[in-house]
Design a protein that fits this description.
The protein is of the alpha/beta class and 297 residues long. 25% of the residues lie in helices and 32% in strands. It has helices at residues 49-53, 109-122, 137-144, 156-167, 184-194, 219-232, 252-262; strands at 5-7, 15-21, 24-29, 32-37, 57-60, 69-72, 83-87, 90-94, 127-131, 148-153, 177-181, 200-203, 208-210, 216-218, 240-245, 268-278, 285-296.
C-alpha cells in the first residue's frame, strides 16, 4: 500500500465549504447556506461572525446544550421539499435530514468521478453494487457510465429519495437500476446462494444502524463479516472496490489493510486516505471521512 492519499474534487459548482472552526462548518448548498457541527475543527474561524449568522439554517447537536436538530431562518424554503442540486450534469435533491446531513456527502465527489471513469474505460458490461447506498448519487454516476446497478439500503425513506433522484435525470428513468430495501448482510448472504456476482462495489457502512427488521449494525463488530460476504460476490475479473467510513475511531490505513486482505486473490492496487473538501476561506484541505479503494491493474 502506498502513502496516505488526499481525495477531493475541484469541480464543484453547486457546493462550497465556506469556512470551518470552533467545532463547526459553514457550507453553501446551491443558494442556501448552513452551519453544521464539525467537531474536528479545533481552530478559530476565518470569516467574521456576521457571515455565519446569516446562514439559512443551523444544525444543533446535543453537545452544544441546545435541543438537537435544525433551526431554520424564517421564510427561506420548505425543508421537507428541498431543492435541486447538480454535479457534472447529474441532478439530485438536497434537503435537511434529522441526522444533520442534506441527502448527499459532497466530499464523495472524487469517488463519483472515479466510478464513472473506471466503468467507462473498460468497455465491457459492468455490474455495479452500491451497499448502504443512501440516496443514490454514486449509483447515478455508475448508470451514466453504462453499468447495470444494484442499489441496497435498509431505509425505505432514503430509497424513495434515490428513486426520486433517478427521475430527476430523464436519461436514467428506464436505466437498469434495482433499488432494494434490505439488511446488507442478509442481502449478500442471499446473493451468494443465488450465485450473483458483481464487478464493481462501493460500500459506506454506518458506525451504528438498524436494518428494516431491527437488525443491529455496529461497524467494529460487523465490518469483518461484511467484507467476508462482499468477497464472495465478486466476479472473476473485478474492476474496483471502494470502502468508506465516517466512524471517528476508524483509520484509512485500517480500512486499506482490511480491503487488501479481502482482495489478496486478485491483481490490483490499494489506495487509502481521506475524503476531503477544499475550504474557500483559506484554501485549507479539510478531512471528513476515511476511505480505501482497490482497483484492478
Amino acid at each position: 500500500m502506498k502513502q496516505i492519499k488526499i481525495f477531493y474534487s475541484k469541480d464543484w459548482q453547486d457546493y462550497e465549504l465556506l469556512d470551518t472552526g470552533e467545532g463547526e462548518k459553514l457550507e453553501k448548498f446551491g443558494k442556501y447556506t448552513f452551519v453544521r457541527p464539525y467537531e474536528d475543527a479545533v481552530w478559530p474561524k476565518t470569516l467574521e461572525k456576521g457571515k455565519w449568522e446569516k446562514a439559512d439554517g443551523k444544525y444543533w447537536s446535543s453537545k452544544e446544550g441546545n435541543k438537537a436538530g435544525w433551526q431554520m431562518s424564517k421564510g427561506t424554503f420548505d425543508k421537507d421539499v428541498g431543492w435541486e442540486m447538480e454535479y457534472k450534469g447529474i441532478k439530485f435533491l438536497a434537503k435537511p435530514t434529522p441526522f444533520r446531513h442534506l441527502g448527499f456527502f459532497p466530499e464523495q465527489a472524487s469517488h463519483w468521478d472515479f466510478i464513472e471513469e473506471q466503468i467507462k474505460k473498460v468497455k465491457r458490461p459492468i455490474k455495479f453494487l452500491n451497499l448502504f447506498g443512501y440516496t443514490g448519487v454514486a449509483s447515478l454516476f455508475a448508470l451514466r457510465a453504462g453499468a447495470e446497478v444494484t442499489h441496497v439500503d435498509a431505509s425505505k425513506e432514503v430509497l424513495t429519495w434515490a428513486k426520486e433522484n433517478q427521475k430527476k435525470n430523464a436519461e436514467f428513468v428506464e436505466a437498469p437500476m434495482r433499488v432494494i430495501e434490505d439488511d446488507v448482510l442478509k442481502f449478500l448472504e442471499r446473493e451468494v446462494k443465488r450465485g450473483n456476482k458483481y464487478d464493481a462495489i462501493i460500500m459506506d457502512p454506518p458506525k451504528f444502524g438498524r436494518g428494516p427488521k431491527g437488525e443491529i449494525w455496529k461497524i467494529e463488530e460487523m465490518l469483518p463479516k461484511l467484507l467476508a460476504q462482499v468477497g464472495k460476490v465478486l466476479s472473476p475479473k473485478p474492476l474496483f472496490v471502494i470502502l468508506t467510513s465516517y466512524a471517528t475511531d476508524s483509520s484509512s490505513l485500517s480500512l486499506g489493510y482490511a480491503l487488501e486482505e479481502m482482495m489478496k486473490g486478485f491483481s490490483g492496487e490499494i489506495e487509502s486516505g481521506e475524503l476531503c473538501i477544499l475550504e474557500k476561506s483559506n484554501e485549507r484541505i479539510v478531512p471528513l471521512a476515511n476511505t480505501a479503494l482497490w482497483s484492478a491493474n
